[in-house]
Amino acid sequence: MWTDTHCHLDFPDFSGDFQEVISRAQEAGVTRFITIGTTVESSRRAVALAESHPAIFAAVGIHPNNAHLAPPGYLEELRTLAASRRVVALGEMGLDHHYLPSSKLPESERQSREAARADQTVREAQERVFGEQLALAAELGLNVVVHERDAWDPALRILTPFNGKLRAVFHCFGKSVAHARQLLDHSHLVSFTGILTFKNAGIVQETARQIPDGTFFVETDCPFLAPVPHRGKRAEPAHAAVVGRFLAGLRASPPEALAAQTEETAAGFFRFPEH
């Protein structure tokens, strides 16, 4: 049995066939789901889903690409949502320097002063909101789901003061063993998506082979990043089993053994309520 530790079931991609999606996942051996908030509204929807379905749990948070749009009072909104017993983490939160405002401009305009100011404004908002959410998580005794893209050093700088106060999982991990060790040395974890199955994923495949048991689990990040052989289509939670079996092959482990191990790791990190 597998848990899809990171999916976006509140997204409109699943509005037309939600129950069929859940049924296909369960038939594939994916029996538990963590749906992840990306805004206040998305977090509300995530909690509503979790409170209406016994196999679904929620994380609530502000995605870095939405940090500059976080409304006043968003922390109190997250605090209220996190009071639900179905909320098992805060997130996703973090830093993303890949999709800054300048990335949407023509190449000739990306080096302008205006573009640089806009990028800096967004970076500062991301850092502030990331730090504020980490502080809230530490206060509430919750672990966190971290999104990091093209912002490794500043993300670690902001996370470091919270080492020992909470644990983080860097979701959709795609970096080297050396990067992973910077997290694992502080009891943080990594999580693998369908990217692991891609032909150009040699670096993260090597990471997946080498890191110790008990330091990772699997996810889909659906509706994004469908694994081979579904690449290019909508990802869905059933694909967590595809990722898990591929990961088991990389580690020369029986899929059943790896499933049991990742389930234990996920349960220790998210501390699912019994009822």
What does this structure look like?
By secondary structure, the chain is of the alpha/beta class. The protein has helices spanning 18-27, 40-52, 74-82, 113-140, 152-159, 177-184, 202-210, 239-250, 255-270; strands at residues 2-7, 30-36, 56-60, 87-96, 144-149, 168-170, 189-192, 216-218. An 8-stranded parallel β-sheet has the order 1-2-3-4-5-6-7-8. Strand 7, helix 7 and strand 8 form a beta-alpha-beta unit. Helix 2 (40-52) packs parallel to helix 3 and helix 8 crosses helix 9. It is globular and about 55 Å long. The mean pLDDT is 96.
Architecture in CATH? Alpha-Beta Barrel
CATH topology: TIM Barrel
Reading side by side through the largest sheet, how are the strands ordered?
A: 1-2-3-4-5-6-7-8
Rg is 18 Å
**Estimated share of beta-strand residues:** 15-25%
First-to-last CA distance: 19 Å
CATH class: Alpha Beta
Q: What is the tally of beta strands?
A: 8
Number of helices: 9
Q: Main β-sheet: number of strands, strand sense, barrel status?
A: 8 strands, parallel
Q: What's the structural domain tally? A: 1
Low-confidence stretches: none
- Mean pLDDT score: 96
Instruction: Give the class from helix and strand content and strand pairing.
Output: alpha/beta
